[in-house]
Design a protein that fits this description.
alpha+beta, three-stranded antiparallel β-sheet, 4 helices, N2O_reductase_NosL
């Protein structure tokens, strides 16, 4: 006869076995990379048409295979700095401005965002006004700073304060 105690132990064991099985499932990561910017593509943060604006653009490949596109590197960081974004992210990409033109960055000039060098406090405008100029190597970033001014940052140094400073600069320029 199954007593109440034995029933609870059996039920607990079955539940525990089910949880162990769930924990061992591997999540399949779908391969993805940057894709061309099309004329009707909208920024995942602000909704602006991406192709109509100068400066470096960005993309985020999500673990489910979707690609989010951004009209500027600053909008990409706005998205990346949200707590629920990082678990979704597989890899982010930015234009290497040392390898392409500021006014119309080429679709084949994307690099991985986490290895790029960024120049903030520089005068050139991006899709949402002041933005972070992104570069594939430090020498190109420093040459840009020598020509235009600015401050060099690594990927890990771009935080909420940096993005807020860009927003304040945009407000000051529009007054």
């Amino acid at each position: 006869m199954l007593t109440r105690r034995k029933f609870i132990i059996v039920l607990g064991g079955v539940s525990l076995a089910g949880l162990v099985g769930c924990g061992s499932e591997e999540t399949e990561v779908v391969a993805c990379g940057p894709v061309p910017i099309e004329s009707g593509d909208e920024c995942a943060v602000c909704g602006m048409y991406i192709a109509e604006h100068p400066g470096p653009k960005a993309q985020a490949c999500l673990r489910d295979g979707r690609v989010l596109k951004f009209c500027s590197t600053s909008d990409m960081f706005v998205w990346l700095l949200q707590p629920d974004s990082v678990p979704q992210l597989q890899q982010a990409f930015v234009h290497d401005m040392g390898a392409t033109d500021w006014d119309s960055p080429a679709d084949d000039a994307y690099i991985e965002a986490d290895v790029a060098f960024y120049v903030t406090e520089q005068p050139l405008m991006g899709g949402m006004g002041p933005t972070l100029a992104s570069f594939g190597n430090e020498a190109d970033a420093r040459a840009f700073i020598n020509e235009h001014d600015g401050r060099l940052l690594d990927y890990e140094e771009v935080d909420v304060q940096v993005i807020n400073a860009l927003a304040r600069a945009h407000i000051q320029r529009s007054m």
